[in-house]
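Exercise 7b. Backbone tokens:
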């Protein structure tokens, strides 16, 4: 039986594609139907001895806005020494041990790809408690879909100071990007905004009136983008 086949029974409610793999481990998790919270079966950690681990992992791919990982887990072990642990990207998030009946755990995933791993591990020596195992069921990832504001390309507006010819109103063109590819509109604000004109679609900024060398001026303006919803 492949790792993916083993993993399938307990991701039955996930709305996000996940595949499973066994990491470098001393015993594989296995599907069983004695203990579960959904779908009639769940995974149980493999039988291990002192200083050994039984681990299973999945990869959550390409979530631009992050997501929420939820799963049910249970442990019956030597309290404080033989642990069922969650790792995300190799970092220990939390562990349970002793006699812990099924509980749901939630973890917020940041954007991008993440490696999620569950590890049942035993300390040195042969002491054990309860059933000496961990269980895992109902793994689910809900991907967030957040409409992010557009981001102005700093290089397109951050000129510090500009030299502008007399008798010309042309200045520069602002650019911006939007994560969802939404239509972007540009606007100007600030004390001196009336001195400038911006094309709300093209981002082209110009003086409202041609500057005059005999009437030097200093002007400041704030640029922003707005979503057209
Ligand atoms: Ca299940
Ligand atoms: Ca132990
Ligand atoms: Ca987004
Ligand atoms: Ca957007």
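Sequence design result:
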């Amino acid at each position: 039986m492949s790792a993916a086949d083993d993993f399938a029974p307990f991701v039955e409610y996930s709305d996000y594609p996940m595949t499973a793999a066994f990491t470098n481990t001393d015993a594989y998790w296995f599907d069983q139907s004695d203990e579960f919270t959904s779908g009639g079966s769940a995974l149980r950690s493999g039988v291990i001895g002192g200083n050994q681990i039984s681990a299973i992992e999945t990869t959550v791919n390409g979530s631009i806005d992050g997501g929420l990982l939820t799963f049910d887990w249970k442990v019956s072990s030597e309290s404080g020494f033989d642990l069922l642990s969650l790792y995300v990207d190799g970092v220990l998030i939390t562990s349970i041990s002793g006699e812990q009946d099924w509980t749901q755990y939630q973890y917020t995933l940041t954007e991008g790809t993440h490696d999620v791993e569950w590890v049942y591990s035993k300390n040195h020596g042969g002491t054990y408690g309860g059933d000496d195992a961990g269980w895992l069921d109902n793994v689910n990832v809900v991907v967030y879909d957040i409409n992010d504001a557009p981001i102005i390309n700093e290089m397109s507006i951050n000129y510090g100071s500009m030299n502008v010819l007399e008798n010309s109103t042309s200045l520069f063109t602002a650019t911006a990007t939007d994560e969802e590819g939404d239509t972007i509109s540009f606007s100007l604000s600030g004390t001196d905004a009336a001195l400038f004109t911006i094309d709300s679609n093209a981002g082209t900024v110009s003086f409202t009136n041609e500057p005059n060398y005999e009437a030097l001026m200093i002007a400041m303006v704030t640029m922003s983008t707005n979503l057209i919803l």
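Instructor comment: The longest helix spans residues 3-7. The two ends are 50 Å apart (CA to CA).
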